[in-house]
C-alpha cells in the first residue's frame, strides 16, 4: 500500500531532466508500472521555472537528473513550496555529502534502507563510489582495513558515464579507445567515496573510460602483509559475504579462476557483484566490484530508492532478499 499521496491512489513522480541519459533510463524502468503515475512536461517547458513549480507542487516525488547547479536550483524551488514540497531524489553530485540529505545506498549499512524510506531528501550515489564503498566499508567496519590505510581505487567506466556530451564524443569521430582521467586527484566522487567508506585518509582514485557504452569495474589493490593480523584473501571474502548476506542486488561472487573480469556483464540490471582476487602465497589481493554505471550506478539505484521513499514495489524488502 502506498504511503499518503497528494492526490490519486498511487504516488506521482516527475523526473526533472527526463530527456538526459540518466533520466531516460529511469523513465524506461518506471514506464508501464501500475503502482505509480509518471508525470512529464512538454519538451519546450522542461526548463521553464513556472511549469516546473506547478508540476513539483503536484508530484509526490521528484527525481533530479540534472547537472549539479540545476539540481541545486530545483532543490530551492522545491523548498519554496513549503508543505507542498515533493520528496526529492537527486542523481547529481550536489548533495551527496550534505548532512541534510540521506545517502541512497540501501545496502551500505543495516540502518540505511529505513533511513532512505523515512527521508524527504535522498541523494543517489555516484557510480564509482557505489563500487568503492561496497568493497571498502565492510572491511573498515570489520577492523580488517584501518581507517587511515592508504587506499587506492582504480576504475574503468563505459562512456555513457559522461552523459550526453561524452556519448556524442565517443559515438562520433576521433575519440580515444581508452583514457585515464581525474589525474589531478580531485575527482568529484572522492568526498563521498572517503566519507561513506569510513576512511580518515583521502584515497587515491584513478578513473578511466573505455570505448564501450556502459558497464563498470572498480578495483582496490591491497598488500595484505601490511594489514593488522595479516588477513588472508579468504578473510576479506568472508567479511564481504557476512555484510551482504541476503542482499537482493549485491552478490559476493567467487573470483574467476582465469583471473579475468570484463565490465559489461551486469548491463541493464540493478546488480552489483563483488569479488576478492587473492594470492595467499604473495599476500596480495585485488577487490573488484562490477556494476552497470547506468544501472546500480544510477537509474537502478534511483528506482530502488524511489520504491523505499514511496513505500511501493520492493520497498518492504529493504535492500534484502524477500
Ligand atoms: N551518466 C551517468 O552514468 C550518471 C550520471 N549521473 C548524474 O546525473 C545527472 C544527469 O547526468 P546525465 O543524465 O548523465 O546527463 P545528461 O547530460 O545526459 O542529461 C542532463 C539533462 O538535464 C537537462 N537539463 C539541464 N539543465 C536543466 C534544467 N535547468 N531543467 C531541466 N533540464 C535540464 C539537459 O538538457 P540539455 O541537454 O538541453 O541542457 C539534459 O537533458 C548529473 O548530475 C550526473 O552527474 C549520476 C550517475 C551516473
Ligand atoms: C565516464 C565518466 O565521465 N564518468 C563520470 C561519472 C559518472 C557518474 O556517476 O557521475 P555522477 O553520478 O557523480 O554524476 C565522471 O567521471 O565524472
From TrEMBL:
One of its GO terms (molecular function) is N-acetyl-gamma-glutamyl-phosphate reductase activity. Its main location: cytoplasm. It is an enzyme of class 1 (oxidoreductase). Catalyzes the NADPH-dependent reduction of N-acetyl-5-glutamyl phosphate to yield N-acetyl-L-glutamate 5-semialdehyde. SUPFAM superfamilies: Glyceraldehyde-3-phosphate dehydrogenase-like, C-terminal domain, NAD(P)-binding Rossmann-fold domains. Pathway: Amino-acid biosynthesis; L-arginine biosynthesis; N(2)-acetyl-L-ornithine from L-glutamate: step 3/4. Residues 12-116 form the Semialdehyde dehydrogenase NAD-binding domain. Keywords: Amino-acid biosynthesis, Arginine biosynthesis, Cytoplasm, NADP, Oxidoreductase. It catalyses: N-acetyl-L-glutamate 5-semialdehyde + phosphate + NADP(+) = N-acetyl-L-glutamyl 5-phosphate + NADPH + H(+). It is found in: Cytoplasm. InterPro entries: AGPR, AGPR_AS, AGPR_dimerisation_dom, AGPR_type-2, NAD(P)-bd_dom_sf, Semialdehyde_DH_NAD-bd. It comes from Pararoseomonas baculiformis. Belongs to the NAGSA dehydrogenase family. Type 2 subfamily. It comes from the Bacteria. CDD domains: AGPR_2_C. NCBIfam families: argC_other. Gene3D superfamilies: Dihydrodipicolinate Reductase, domain 2 (3.30.360.10), NAD(P)-binding Rossmann-like Domain (3.40.50.720). Its EC number is 1.2.1.38. The active site is at 127. This is N-acetyl-gamma-glutamyl-phosphate reductase.
